[in-house]
Design brief:
The protein is mainly alpha-helical. It folds into three domains: 72-345, no CATH class; 348-459, no CATH class; 462-550, D-Maltodextrin-Binding Protein, domain 2 (3-Layer(aba) Sandwich). It is built from 22 helices and seven strands. Helix 3 (75-92) packs across helix 4 and helix 5 packs across helix 15.
Amino acid sequence: MNSPNPALVTHRAAQRLPRLALFLFCAAYVIPGVFGRDPWKNADITAFGYMVGMVDGRSSWISPALGGLPSDAALLPYWLGAAFIKLLGPLLGAPLAARLPFALLLVLVLVLTWYSTYHLARTDAAQPLPFAFGGEANPIDYARAIADGALLALIATLGLLQLGHETTPELAQLASVSLYLYGLSAIPMRGIEPRLAVLFALPALAASGAPAVAISLGVVGALICWRGDQPTGREFLPWVIGSTLVAAGAAWLIGAWGWRLSAYSSAAQFIATLKLLVWFPWPAWPLAFWTIWRWRHHLLHRHLAVPLGCAMVSLAACIAMGGSDRALMLTLPPLAVLASFALPTLQRSTSAAVDWFSVFFFSVCSISMWVVYLSLQTGIPATPAVNVGRRLSGYTSSFSIIALLIAGLGTLAWIWLVRWRAGRHRNPLWKSLVLPASGVALCWLLLTTLWLPMMDYARSYRPLIDRIARHVPKNQCVNGWALPRGQIAALESLGGYQVDAINAPPLSRCDYLLRIEPTSNLRTSIAGWTLVAREQRPSDKDELTAIYRRNPTQ
């Protein structure tokens, strides 16, 4: 006999988050960072370089390349970005055009996480216990409140903040995992929709560069359907198996199979992985662990088995890849779903601790951002502006009234939310996640408004490309043998150079050679080449980009 359900929820606690507030949360999280910036170092500019290369004809759409170096076979997201550049690039510019579909993918992740939680919370095993004299939550209201909590938990996770706003294949992988999670969650609730979701999700995941994760998720999904608590699960089993087989075939067809395992070569790498596991999925993982503990006698029920199985697959991939943060990102939607089922069981003292920590941490972060901004604009206080000038040589601050107004409105909204939470609003289930989610959204908003010019100057390759352009005419052939892929992508997409990254300098036909040299060990000369200049990215103090020109006799 199963232990009783640990959730006791009144109808007053099952209030849904006002839809306008929910949409504003999502907008404040998704839209900032989409406009007004270049692709950033490293993965962001690398993926963008593949897309631009396909559109400009430097590489084929079947085998994207940078300077002749092949991509990692994540064809689907590259095709998606390249298609938007082809359609909207002349109107919006290539960086913004490429970023738009990935912003829509982030929206899709948020929507699918909400609906996954909603369908799981409506199952009989997930519903709260009825009261002896009535007054318990309505099933649909309860499911909506839990789903709102899952969405807030996903927004609050620290690891999604930057990676979720990049133009990289991992965001397509995240959307595919979220689609698969939705498909398994909605098995008894819908007709053809969950079947199509599962059938498309795993092949899309494999075509986005994660075939092993796709196959593993297929195996886990098949076990859940076979051994789950829903009678319709076995009817769903052929769709999961079919999707898994199609994913394997798609990976074989595009050559995506390949092991990316990484051994732990030192204790420092092991400790770094542990640190990543602590901060990256915060605060979803403590709540997910609490869910597993409080619902430990119900782990075979679908509302726990589905997100737990999906999270374990991605967690195993992260550990096997030596602590990959991009593999760990795939755990965030299922962890957010698990975290939401902890909300009906949290004690008031725990909720208060989360609130006070959020108020302190995010208030300090936002105040720090405002102080640095005021220092750059007015010189008062002087120290932050001096520190910025020391770290980012050549940076000149700029002023935008639109950015200031948006940042000011976001800060006022944060102050209002803190006052609202400090009041007597103890009923809604999602109340404990309002401040963490809004604090993350506020910091990202301030970062991409007040700090955007400074961040773009520090994270973009454009300052370096502009300095290289002083010495190397555009459209020249540049040998970039041993350059990082991000810099190769910047030379091609931002500088317009023809880069040869596959031939060693003696075998290359290029007249210019670029190479990275650490400041502690600068080369004095290279046979057959003459040093023209050494340039530096403003935020890279330990290395220089040396520019050489081939001697005329060579």
